[in-house]
Amino acid sequence: MSISWIVVAVILGFLIIFQIAKASEYVSILRGEEKTRKENNRINAFLLLAFLILGLIGVVWCHEALKDKVLGEAASNHGERIDSMLMITLWITGAVFVLTQVLLFWFAYKYQEKEGRKAFYYPHNNKLELIWTVIPAITLTILVGFGLYYWFQITGEAPKGAQEVEVWGKQFNWEFRYPGKDGQFGKRYYKDINEATANPLGQNWNDPANHDDIYTTGEVHVVVNKPVKFIIGAKDVIHDVGLVHFRMKMDAVPGIPTTMWFTPKFTTRQMKEKYGPDFNYEISCDQMCGKGHFSMRGVVIVETQEEYNAWIATKQPQYLAAKGGAAPAAAPAAPAAQPGGTNMKPVQSADSAAAAAQPTAMLNR
Amino acid sequence: MNEHTHHNTQSAADTHGALHVDHHHGNGHDHGHHKETFISKYIFSMDHKTIAKQFLITGMLWAIVGGLFSVLFRLQLAYPDESFPILETFFGNWAKGGQIQPEFYYALITMHGTVLVFFVLTGGLSGTFANLLIPLQVGARDMASPFMNMLSYWFFFIASVVMFSSLFVQTGPASGGWTSYPPLSALGQASVGSKIGMDLWIVSMALFVVSSLLGGLNYIATILNMRTKGMSMTRLPLTIWALFFTAILGVLSFPVLFSGFILLLFDRHLGTSFYLSDIVVAGQVLPNEGGSAVLYQHLFWFLGHPEVYIIILPAMGLVSEVMSVNSRKPIFGYMAMVGSIFAITILAFLVWAHHMFVSGLNPFLGAFFVLLTLLIAIPSAIKVFNWITTLWRGNLRFTPGMMFSIGFVSLFISGGLTGIWLGNSTLDIHLHDTYFVIAHFHIVMGVSAFFGMFAGVYHWFPKMFGRYLNNTLGYIHFWVTLAGAYLIFWPMHYQGMAGVPRRYLDFRLWSSFNHFNDLNIFITIVSIIVFAVQLLFVFNFFYSMFKGRKVRSLNPWGSASLEWTTPINPGHGNWPGEIPEVHRWAYDYSKDGRDFIPQTEPLGPNETKH
């Protein structure tokens, strides 16, 4: 079995290294410990310098190898801000990185112990220390300034007329609610949630605002170049709506609604043309939520207003599904809705409870 | 910083001389004369040096366990579709068909984090060096309360036993991540790891907090009250300053974590709703309303952030000391170093919510945390420049301890700078919970703190065991670990910038994240090599403890600080005669043409004070 051979090889390797190390200790005693120590000192000083040079080359090489695997152009207005903040920070911290690493390893190499060298008794220098207090302070002020400028733009109020969509996280998929023609979300209460009666979000059917609200899972449709505001919630544990291409992220917390807004710049079709047919604006769950966390995937479809209008026209309000009208828009696990189910009890069949506990058979695959 | 008074004309030279004469091993002081059994000497010992070794060895065992866990989950990340039958042999259903199951993966990452953050880098690091160095470097016979000190270790031990036992319960150990956010951690229905494993986790952590408080109070009391004659606070070595502020951080923040855990326990078992509201889990509607899941995050990070300084400050102290000794130069800017540690301590309490920028925190509040977080970069920068200046025009001896100290500074720079990225809320939106975070904190507080700890172990091993570690193995250990750490974590920044989320065990489902296969394999291979080299270190440690080259001089590194005035194998009580009196700071290296001047030597007539 290959693994046992690897283990044997590792143990042998250990023994060899150990024997060499032990032998070198004896040799050093024979040759004179001071002499060996000085030799070690020279070797390690050289290695420190070599490490610096190879390391800096490695940094460049790594960048060349991976730069194309980092995300392309940001696909939202906020993403642009985040990317420019990233570049500002990269240049500043990059410069400090090179400067300090070079000084550190160069000094280590240059001031290695030498015959006749006397270390310089230099306990402090207030002027120097003041300089390297003030310069970082100024630099950081710049970074804080830019950071907060962008931060308040990104987290500020969504523009008037933004499309609003509710995003719900649950173990382990995403659900969405659109306000329908009236532009208003109907009232809901978590104790009314009942998959069996086709009421996955706990909508209150007595509220007329609910009668045109549309419910979907897996995919959310938004309009290109139009601000969209997500109102985010979670039904069970904390999740997080992660939208890498838009550079956006916001936790979904049970009991505490959160929001995010952004303006998508490119339609999904444009992105597919640019990055290949496999491209999708994926929603990744970015907050540990249980065993299916790694598979909690959703998709944002960015399309033109016409495409969006055509799509939404094919959707029926969840109210109809719950009332046993048309086929349920989503929630295939739900058995046929019971008539007159407005006063439903928060009880579920064992089957659907078990189904909900499943790691959601790999969404959308 | 020249205000030290040296009030002495009466000669401490007698004691000083006496110490150097006294070469016999064993117990000089009368503490040692009463009969010691094996149990009282090695197990329920009240000698701070033995307790330090107990912490160190327990920490090392935990490090092996935690490291092994990382190798296992790295295996999954590199080869998600491959089967390793040997895993099924060892882990049974957790690795059905030789493949790591999601629950097992999450248990592994949770335990890896918990074990390394708390049991290794807090218990193992502070516990070891605070116990070893505080009495020796301040000039005390033992801790203020040796008994409490012993209890501190044994609470740590019991916490370890409970945590370890949680690995063997049927539903597995806690698996909600080392932060254990509710509601996931509060509801057994939400995850198998949130069943009995979570209770054991909470109990173990509570015991750990008790251990940490017992230790911390003792360290503070000892440093404040038990310094030898002449050892003013401003003459303390930086190790002691660092350990002092570490203890203060722990004493003030661990109780908050404790309260957070107690409330979590209530939510789990007593039907309270501190963290729970509006929950439908596994098809079941829960009655809890009005709680706040975010409250836990505040309580957790109120410790959780100081915790990273609890980990890194001792490492900084150890590095400052080792670097100064081996540069044959005083540490540059002693008072600025102390001031920086103090500033970091204060700021450490004021930045916790930068872990919560995307939790729904009010953006206005977030802005303050951005400001305060980036402020912490200033004292950190001062420290880095001071270390670099300490090397400047030194006469550097590259002992393994010194190598790890230089490596520490390099890693601290690399990891510290990415903190400036993450502390900026604008960037955190994109980088939060991605591999960028993994890269950042592993470099800046994981590997760096380990480097500080290794520097300490190589440097003070002769004081602990009267023997040296093997140098060649030490250099191999250093170079492989340094290069390995960069090879593992540097490319992860790119994964993070690509938005790859942490805590995913398989990326095949994702068109956005599935293009790093080769890199994941590369990282896994390097981490296995680095792990193997750590085993080499462990072997070196235990072998040298019994068979290493013997220390033959009292002060093998030519160090000015007080611990090297004790006999080679000091007994309980440390100094056979009187505790020496101190006349100067611990950093008189290469002063006035002398290689070093021990702290115990009175100032010369024309000498400047320090």
UniProtKB/TrEMBL annotation, chain B:
<feature type="transmembrane region" description="Helical">
    <location>
        <begin position="435"/>
        <end position="461"/>
    </location>
</feature>
<keyword id="KW-0472">Membrane</keyword>
<feature type="transmembrane region" description="Helical">
    <location>
        <begin position="364"/>
        <end position="382"/>
    </location>
</feature>
<feature type="transmembrane region" description="Helical">
    <location>
        <begin position="473"/>
        <end position="492"/>
    </location>
</feature>
<feature type="transmembrane region" description="Helical">
    <location>
        <begin position="200"/>
        <end position="226"/>
    </location>
</feature>
<keyword id="KW-0479">Metal-binding</keyword>
<feature type="transmembrane region" description="Helical">
    <location>
        <begin position="104"/>
        <end position="130"/>
    </location>
</feature>
<keyword id="KW-0679">Respiratory chain</keyword>
<feature type="transmembrane region" description="Helical">
    <location>
        <begin position="331"/>
        <end position="352"/>
    </location>
</feature>
<feature type="transmembrane region" description="Helical">
    <location>
        <begin position="519"/>
        <end position="543"/>
    </location>
</feature>
<feature type="transmembrane region" description="Helical">
    <location>
        <begin position="299"/>
        <end position="319"/>
    </location>
</feature>
<feature type="transmembrane region" description="Helical">
    <location>
        <begin position="238"/>
        <end position="266"/>
    </location>
</feature>
<dbReference type="InterPro" id="IPR036927">
    <property type="entry name" value="Cyt_c_oxase-like_su1_sf"/>
</dbReference>
<protein>
    <submittedName>
        <fullName>Cbb3-type cytochrome c oxidase subunit I</fullName>
    </submittedName>
</protein>
<feature type="transmembrane region" description="Helical">
    <location>
        <begin position="55"/>
        <end position="75"/>
    </location>
</feature>
<dbReference type="Pfam" id="PF00115">
    <property type="entry name" value="COX1"/>
</dbReference>
<dbReference type="InterPro" id="IPR023615">
    <property type="entry name" value="Cyt_c_Oxase_su1_BS"/>
</dbReference>
<keyword id="KW-0812">Transmembrane</keyword>
<keyword id="KW-0408">Iron</keyword>
<feature type="transmembrane region" description="Helical">
    <location>
        <begin position="151"/>
        <end position="169"/>
    </location>
</feature>
<comment type="similarity">
    <text>Belongs to the heme-copper respiratory oxidase family.</text>
</comment>
<feature type="transmembrane region" description="Helical">
    <location>
        <begin position="403"/>
        <end position="423"/>
    </location>
</feature>
<feature type="domain" description="Cytochrome oxidase subunit I profile">
    <location>
        <begin position="38"/>
        <end position="601"/>
    </location>
</feature>
<keyword id="KW-0813">Transport</keyword>
<keyword id="KW-1133">Transmembrane helix</keyword>
<dbReference type="InterPro" id="IPR023616">
    <property type="entry name" value="Cyt_c_oxase-like_su1_dom"/>
</dbReference>
<keyword id="KW-0249">Electron transport</keyword>
<dbReference type="InterPro" id="IPR000883">
    <property type="entry name" value="Cyt_C_Oxase_1"/>
</dbReference>
<keyword id="KW-0349">Heme</keyword>
